[in-house]
Design goal:
Elements lengths: L1 H41 L18 E12 L4 E10 L4 E4 L2 H5 L6 E3 L5 E3 L2 H11 L20 E5 L6 E4 L3 H19 L9 H15 L13 H21 L7 H47 L1 H71 L2 H11 L6 H8 L9 H5 L6 H29 L5 H52 L20 H27 L18 H4 L7 H4 L9 H6 L2 E2 L44 H13 L100 E2 L2
Parallel strand pairs: 1-8, 4-9
Antiparallel strand pairs: 1-2, 1-7, 2-3, 3-4, 5-6, 6-7
Length: 765
C-alpha cells in the first residue's frame, strides 16, 4: 500500500530526471552528428587491421544448455529447471527439457545486464544486509536464503529481482559460472558500437548528466542497452529517498523485511523502466526527425563550423591550459607509468593466452587429421573451431587473467569506483580478437581446399596458414592493446582532472558562449570543447608512456613505426564473400537444407557436464512422468516456509519432489513474454544429445577453466539447436509489477484449458 501511495511522486521524480537527461542528449546528439560527418569526410589514418572481421555473426548455435535448480520465491521451494543460453546470451529457463524440445513457452527470460554472479550464500547475504541499513537478522535466526547444496549460483542486481540457482557438484558450478559470466559480459556491452551518432551521444549525455551532479569517475552501472542504463541512472537517484521513506514502514522479521524490500525495489525498477522507455523513444524519434536538416547544414557549412570551433577552442585553451598543465604535472604525470603497468601486465597475459588457446586448438585439430584423415573430419573440427571465441569454458583461462588487475592506492586517488569496467572491456577485446583469428584462419583454409592433393598437403597447408594468422594476430593484438591502454588512461585521468579544475574553471565557461554563432550552436558546445582542451593537456604524456612501453617490448607490443600496409592485399577481398557453412558445403547433401532442419542441427558450444557416476541427479525415469492434466503433488505445510531444506537431507527431498512433478506429456502451454534479448518470432528446437564415444568431446570428467583445451575426437559434438522464443506483449500481471505480500502466493493468469502452478511466469528486462 505504501508503494501505491508513492507511485505518483516516483513517476514525477522519474520524469524530472529523464527531462534533464533528454536535454543533455539532444545537445550531445548535434555534436555527435557533426563529429560523425566530419570523420566521414576527413577519414582516419589509423593502422589497418590484418585479421578479417566476421561481418555476418554466427547465429546457428547454443552456448550451453542443461539442468539446474532454481529457488522459486512465490512458493519458497526449489524446482528443477532446464536452462538454455542461446547465441544472444539471454538466460531462458524452461519447465524441463521436454518443454524446450516441444517449443513451449519458457518459465523465465533473464537479461543479465548489471548482474553479479555470486557463488557463496555468505557473499549474497552481505550484499542484502548492506542494501537496507539497520535491517540485519540476529545471529541464530534463519537468513533470507538457505541453499540445499554447497554449490549455489546467485544472480544479484542492486535494483532488479534476484535469481537463485544451485547445482550438485563443484565442476558443474564452475562451468555454469563461466557461462553466466559470459552472459553478463555480453549483455553489459549492450550499446552498439556500430552506431556512430546515437551511441556516443548517449554515453556523453550520461557522463555530462552525472558530472552536473558532481559525480565524476567510472560508473559500474553503465550496463546493458540504453533503456537499462538510463533506468539505472534514475534508480541511482530514487533509491536513497525510497529507502528512507519505505524502510522504516516495513513490518515483520528482518528476513521478511529484506525480502519485501527486494520485491519493492524490483517493482519500482520495472515502473521506471517502462516510463524511461517511453520518454527515451520519444526523444530519439524527435532527433531522428530533425537529423536530415541538421546533416544538411553540417555538410553545407562544414568549413565555417570547424573554423568557429577552433576559434572557441583557442580562447578556452588560453584560459584553461596553464591551470590544466600544472594539475597534470603535479597530480597525474607521476602516476601514469604505474597505472599503465598495472593495466599492461594482466591484459597482455590475457591476449597471450588467447594466442596460446588458438594455437593449441588448431594444432590439436591438425594432429587428429593426421591420425584420422579425410575432409569429413576436417569439417567436424572446423565447425567446432568456428565457435571457439564463444566457448566460455575454453576462453575462461584468457578472461581470468584480468582478475589480477589491481590499481590499489591509485584507485582511491583517481576516484575509480571499480576496475570491473576495464576488466570487462579487455575481455570483450579478447573474444573479438579470437573470433577474428578463427575467421581469418577458416577463410584462408577454405580458399586452399580446392588446390590440395591428399592428407599430407592438407596438414602442411593448415600449419602454414596457422603461422600466417598468428603473425597477423600479433600485430592486431598489439594495436588493440595500445588503443585500450590509451582509452583506459584517459578514462581514469580525465574525470580526475575535471573534478580538480571545476572550482576554478567551470564557473567561467559561460562567458565563452557568445563566441559561438547561433546557427552553429547545435554542433559546438562550450562544455565539450573545454573537455577536449583538458584531454589535450594530458594526451601527450599518455601517448609518450604507451610509446615507451612499446619500445621496451616488455609486453610484446609493436612500435608505432612498425606498420603492416597491405601485407595481404587479397585477404580483405575474401572477407567480403558469403559466410562459410562447413557442414552444409561439405556434407554431400544435394539439396538445400530447410531452415527448420538447420536450426535443429545447430551445435552446442559447451559440452554438457557428466559427473563421475554417469547419472545426473536431475534425470528422472519415464515411469515417473505425470499424465496430462495431473495435479502437482501437494506437500505438507511447514511452519517456516522461508527456510529451504538443509543439505544433505534437503537434496534427497528435492530429488523426491522432482521425481513426482517432472513434466512429461502434461507440460502446459503458457503465454509468451517479451524480453529485450529474445528475438520475437524465433522458434525453439532441440535435438537429443547423442551418446559420446570414448575420448569424445563430452568428457566423463568435466572441463575446468584452468585446464588446457583437450583435442576433440571424431563424432564427439553434442547436437543442440539455437534458442529463441516467439513472444507477445505482456500484460501488467505478467510482468510481475504487482508485489505480493511476503507470505502470500502468486496466482498468475491462467490460459483457457490449462492448469498453472503457483510459481507464475517471470521476466526480466
Amino acid at each position: 500500500p505504501c508503494l501505491t501511495r508513492l507511485c505518483s511522486p516516483l513517476a514525477e521524480k522519474t520524469g524530472k530526471v529523464l527531462g534533464e537527461f533528454c536535454r543533455c542528449y539532444k545537445e550531445q546528439y548535434g555534436v555527435a552528428l557533426f563529429n560523425s560527418v566530419r570523420y566521414e569526410i576527413e577519414g582516419n589514418g589509423g593502422p589497418q587491421a590484418q585479421l578479417l572481421h566476421r561481418k555476418v555473426p554466427l547465429e546457428d548455435h547454443v552456448i550451453y544448455s542443461g539442468n539446474l535448480f532454481q529457488y522459486i520465491e512465490e512458493n519458497k521451494k526449489w524446482r528443477n529447471r532446464f536452462c538454455v543460453v542461446p547465441h544472444n546470451y539471454g538466460l531462458v529457463l524452461y519447465e524441463n527439457k521436454l518443454a524446450y524440445e516441444r517449443d513451449l513457452s519458457p518459465r523465465v527470460l533473464v537479461n543479465s545486464a548489471g548482474y553479479k554472479i555470486l557463488t557463496s550464500v555468505d557473499q549474497y547475504l552481505e550484499l542484502v544486509n548492506s542494501s537496507l541499513p539497520g535491517v540485519t537478522p540476529k545471529s541464530g535466526h534463519s537468513p533470507i536464503l538457505k541453499c540445499p547444496t554447497d554449490f549455489p549460483l546467485i544472480l544479484w542486481h542492486p535494483y532488479a529481482r534476484h535469481y537463485y540457482f544451485c547445482v550438485m557438484t563443484g565442476k558443474e558450478q564452475e562451468k555454469w559460472r563461466a557461462v553466466f559470466q559470459d552472459c553478463v559480459r555480453h549483455c553489459n556491452n549492450g550499446i552498439s558500437e556500430d552506431s556512430k551518432v546515437e551511441a556516443p551521444a548517449f554515453t556523453d549525455a550520461v557522463r555530462m548528466y552525472r558530472q552536473s551532479k558532481e559525480q565524476y569517475g567510472t560508473w559500474d552501472m553503465l550496463c546493458g542497452n540504453e533503456i537499462q542504463v538510463l533506468s539505472n541512472l534514475v534508480m541511482e537517484e530514487l533509491l536513497p529517498e525510497l529507502r528512507t521513506t519505505i524502510g522504516p514502514r516495513l513490518k515483520g522479521k528482518a528476513q521478511e523485511r529484506q525480502r519485501t524490500w527486494i520485491q519493492i525495489s524490483d517493482a519500482v525498477y520495472r515502473m521506471v523502466y517502462e516510463q524511461t522507455k517511453a520518454q527515451y523513444d520519444a526523444v530519439m524519434a524527435k532527433c531522428e526527425q530533425e537529423r536530415p536538416q541538421m546533416e544538411s547544414t553540417i555538410r553545407t557549412d562544414m568549413d565555417q563550423i570547424i573554423t568557429s570551433k577552433e576559434h572557441l577552442a583557442s580562447k578556452i585553451r588560453a584560459f584553461v591550459l596553464p591551470k590544466a598543465e600544472v594539475c597534470v604535472r603535479n597530480h597525474v604525470q607521476p602516476y601514469i607509468s604505474s597505472i599503465l603497468e598495472a593495466l599492461m601486465t594482466p591484459t597482455s597475459q590475457g591476449f597471450a593466452e588467447v594466442r596460446e588457446v588458438f594455437f593449441k586448438e588448431v594444432t590439436d585439430m591438425n594432429m587428429n587429421i593426421v591420425n584420422e584423415g579425410g575432409l569429413e573430419k576436417l569439417v567436424e573440427y572446423m565447425e567446432k573451431l568456428s565457435h571457439l571465441a564463444f566457448h566460455p569454458v575454453k576462453m575462461q583461462s584468457c578472461y581470468e587473467k584480468m582478475d589480477q588487475l589491481k590499481l590499489e592506492g591509485l584507485q582511491q586517488r583517481f576516484d575509480v569506483s571499480s576496475t570491473s569496467v576495464f576488466k570487462q572491456r579487455a575481455q570483450i577485446h579478447m573474444r573479438q580478437q579470437m573470433d577474428d583469428a578463427v575467421y581469418t584462419f577458416e577463410t584462408l583454409l577454405h580458399q586452399e581446399l580446392g588446390k590440395l592433393q591428399g592428407k599430407d598437403d592438407l596438414c602442411k597447408s593448415i600449419q602454414r596458414i596457422l603461422e600466417r594468422v598468428l603473425k597477423k594476430y600479433d600485430y592486431d593484438s598489439s594495436t588493440v592493446r595500445k588503443k585500450f591502454f590509451r582509452e583506459a588512461l584517459l578514462q581514469i585521468t580525465i574525470p580526475f582532472l575535471l573534478k580538480k579544475l571545476a572550482p576554478t574553471c567551470k564557473g567561467e565557461l559561460a562567458k565563452f558562449q557568445e563566441l559561438i554563432f547561433e546557427d552553429f550552436s547545435s554542433f559546438i558546445l562550450v562544455e565539450n570543447t573545454y573537455e577536449e582542451v583538458v584531454l589535450q593537456s594530458v594526451m601527450k604524456d599518455i601517448m609518450q608512456a604507451v610509446k615507451e612501453a612499446a619500445v621496451q617490448r616488455k609486453h610484446n607490443l609493436y612500435r608505432d613505426s612498425m606498420v603492416m600496409h597491405n601485407s595481404d592485399p587479397n585477404l580483405h577481398l575474401l572477407g567480403e564473400g558469403m559466410p562459410i557453412d562447413w557442414g552444409e558445403e561439405y556434407s554431400g547433401q544435394p539439396e538445400a537444407e530447410p531452415a527448420a532442419d538447420k536450426r535443429r542441427r545447430a551445435k552446442q558450444v559447451v559440452s554438457v557436464i557428466q559427473d563421475d557416476e554417469g547419472v545426473l541427479p536431475y534425470e528422472v525415469g519415464a515411469e515417473a512422468l505425470l499424465q496430462p492434466g495431473s495435479p502437482e503433488p501437494r506437500e505438507p505445510e511447514e511452519p517456516d516456509r522461508g527456510a529451504a531444506p538443509s543439505s544433505p537431507a534437503g537434496v534427497e527431498e528435492i530429488r523426491e519432489a522432482l521425481a513426482k512433478e517432472s513434466l512429461g506429456d502434461g507440460v502446459k502451454a503458457e503465454e509468451r513474454l517479451t524480453n529485450a534479448d529474445v528475438p520475437s518470432g524465433a522458434s525453439v528446437q532441440h535435438a537429443v544429445p547423442a551418446s559420446p564415444k570414448p575420448g569424445a568431446d563430452v568428457p566423463s570428467e568435466p572441463e575446468v577453466p584452468h585446464a588446457a583445451p583437450a583435442s576433440p575426437a571424431p563424432g564427439a559434438e553434442t547436437p543442440s539447436p539455437s534458442a529463441g522464443t516467439a513472444c507477445h506483449q505482456p500484460s501488467d500481471k505478467e510482468t510481475g509489477e504487482e508485489v505480493a505480500p511476503p507470505s502470500g502466493e502468486c496466482s498468475p493468469p491462467q490460459p483457457t484449458g490449462t492448469t498453472e502452478s503457483s510459481e507464475g511466469v517471470q521476466t526480466e528486462f
